[in-house]
């Protein structure tokens, strides 16, 4: 097996009897065991439980029942979602002695109710703190487009598994860009929904005031179906693209962009009617505030365990968490005050536009042996700085769709589509138009990567 069909097509085939859920699930497990040895996107396979769930789906279909729109579709979860009877480790050995989950995370339960079957947990930066999926315990996840390059993080295992065609969709989380960055670097679709609208129960937290859970998918149709299932309701009808006003974020979001990505964004803006440039104030301070809030909340969450088990943490994660726990309260309070002000500025921008476009990363995926990106002429750590364009926007709690840019002639590049809270339908409308025009869409793997 080289690549699994889309979720919608596979579910249709299973419901129609052209294949079975057991065949689909066992094929995915076999494919992971063969091909993921090179990518390292999977940390654990839920083999017996997944096969048992598939057998149940097949029995329902044989009895004339409809298991749901995702009948028998295998999917993976970032290793911070509860899956019943499995230990949730959040990418760390620190939690390996925890009791198995007694319930699925809410979004996993909703996907099961729609017929989908969790088959594996997926690699991530330890406790979601990083942009590289360079995990001290499970190893580094490699980009399926070029195994010498990073997949991005912290949900890199999820993006890589979908990009490699191991599964049609996967779940991730996004605090400061952990869905958008790897989706961009791996050439797949990703969605960070409006903050607070998709339930996080059963997802191990990082920074609760910023955490959002969302999907990755190989097709835009799958992304929409999985998002609606996670959300618990269908989106309203997509608005006509001609009625949507599009703006292009400038300033901070135009600096440091690679030439191929700048050209791709120019083409997108031109196709959408020459999007006017929108300037947001104090973006550098917004990114700093995001850093501080994340560090403080993450450090506070982990401090009791750090006091007992510091040696079990990845040293890079441990040191950042300790630093966050030591931040003065006045500094954190000021960061939250600034966050409120900056959120107001972003929301105000949507009085004049419906969708903003911005780069997701500075360019293509960095090499593993040189994990840096160039910012203002300096080589800086990719693990800490790949969120250059995603972190500031996280403060506003707005929905952001990461669209893979096609036709660049090389490695994947990514575009952020940003809308006001609750306006996911506008994002999907613009994304569908870019896909129709051949400007966006899943970036195919090179022949040797299939």
Number of strands: 17
- Give the overall silhouette: globular
What does the main sheet amount to?
11 strands, mixed
Share in helix: 25-40%
Terminal CA distance: 10 Å
Strand order of the largest sheet: 1-3-2-8-10-9-16-17-13-11-12
Q: What's the number of helices?
A: 14
**How many domains make up the coordinates?**
2
Uncertain ranges:
none
What CATH architecture of the largest domain would you give? Alpha-Beta Complex
User: How much is the radius of gyration in Å?
Assistant: 20 Å
CATH topology of the largest domain, which one? Amidase signature (AS) enzymes
User: What structural class do you assign from the helix and strand content?
Assistant: alpha+beta
Oligomer: single chain
CATH fourth-tier homologous superfamily of the largest domain: Amidase signature (AS) domain
Average pLDDT across residues? Answer: 96
Please write the CATH class name of the largest domain: Alpha Beta
Report the sheet-strand fraction.
Answer: 15-25%
InterPro entries: Amidase, Amidase_dom, AS_sf, Carboxybiuret_hydro_AtzE
Domain Amidase: 25-427
Protein name: AtzE family amidohydrolase
Keywords: Hydrolase
Describe the protein's topology.
Layout: H1 7-16, H2 21-39, E1 42-45, H3 47-62, E2 74-78, H4 106-113, E3 117-122, E4 134-135, E5 139-140, E6 142-143, E7 146-150, H5 156-163, E8 169-174, H6 180-186, E9 189-192, E10 212-217, H7 220-231, E11 246-249, H8 259-271, E12 276-278, H9 283-309, H10 315-325, H11 329-349, E13 355-359, E14 372-375, E15 378-381, H12 382-385, H13 391-394, E16 400-405, E17 413-419, H14 424-436
Parallel strand pairs: 2-3, 2-8, 11-12, 11-13
Antiparallel strand pairs: 1-3, 4-5, 6-7, 8-10, 9-10, 9-16, 13-17, 14-15, 16-17
Helix pairs in contact: 2-3, 4-7, 9-10, 9-11
